[in-house]
């Protein structure tokens, strides 16, 4: 029962496998924020075989970025819809991934905090191999780090866990390459807006307490 933030809009960024989903789950639990992950939105479209899902499936599986012209309006509409359901803060995971996305978001829902998880690539490659997800909720597991209570089943619903198509080595490599080629200008963008906060480390259990302490302080000042 920490502070209940209103009117805060936080984006969380970081390389693939840096723990955005893992850390977000803890933030949402401790600070009762609304949460949206662009990757979860896309994976659910793919799994439900919507027209959009069919169109983007090969792009996501290959580890490439979905065109902003398709994604940005969808994410911004989802944010507006979710925000209208409750008077509380908001956490966005996986968006923006380009300066044009950041600029658009700045016009519609300007973030008052941009968290960057700075985790070395060597650490990441090993984690992704043993990741399993519960697709409908986006809950994330890891066979070594946080295994489900029952093998292959989601802790909350008991439904089956799956591996992500883009977690095969070639796609992970592509995702890391793309990340490296697009992120610097986005970090620069948020630095200039004076909302960037970087957390570095190799373990979520060490990074999260730092994020938590920072957020407790930050939210008091809002
Ligand atoms: P996503 O879904 O945004 P990525 O690649 O940015 O995907 P990903 O893979 O979801 O990021 P994460 O959320 O940062 O990683 O990490 P995580 O899932 O929490 O942790 C990774 C694993 O490590 C898990 O198994 C976890 O349990 C474990 N773990 C966590 N902490 C630790 C630790 O301390 N120790 C250990 N040992 N393990 C740990 O985007 C996917 C695709 O969607 C499209 C693109 O195609 C993208 O590739 N997309 C977009 N396209 C265009 N624009 C956008 N804005 C887009 N957003 C998504
Ligand atoms: Mg994720």
From TrEMBL:
One of its GO terms (cellular component) is mitochondrial matrix. AMP binds at residues 38, 43, 64-66, 94-97, 101, 164, 175. Residues 37-66 are annotated as: NMPbind. One of its GO terms (molecular function) is nucleoside triphosphate adenylate kinase activity. Keywords: GTP-binding, Kinase, Mitochondrion, Nucleotide-binding, Transferase. Signal peptide: none annotated. Its EC number is 2.7.4.10. One of its GO terms (biological process) is AMP metabolic process. GTP binds at residues 17-22, 131, 140-141, 204. Residues 131-166 form the Adenylate kinase active site lid domain. It catalyses: a ribonucleoside 5'-triphosphate + AMP = a ribonucleoside 5'-diphosphate + ADP. Pfam families: ADK, ADK_lid. It is found in: Mitochondrion matrix. Residues 130-167 are annotated as: LID. NCBIfam families: adk. Consists of three domains, a large central CORE domain and two small peripheral domains, NMPbind and LID, which undergo movements during catalysis. The LID domain closes over the site of phosphoryl transfer upon GTP binding. Assembling and dissambling the active center during each catalytic cycle provides an effective means to prevent GTP hydrolysis. Involved in maintaining the homeostasis of cellular nucleotides by catalyzing the interconversion of nucleoside phosphates. Has GTP:AMP phosphotransferase and ITP:AMP phosphotransferase activities. Belongs to the adenylate kinase family. AK3 subfamily. PANTHER family: NUCLEOTIDE KINASE. This is GTP:AMP phosphotransferase, mitochondrial. It comes from Allacma fusca. The lineage of its organism: Eukaryota, Metazoa, Ecdysozoa, Arthropoda, Hexapoda.
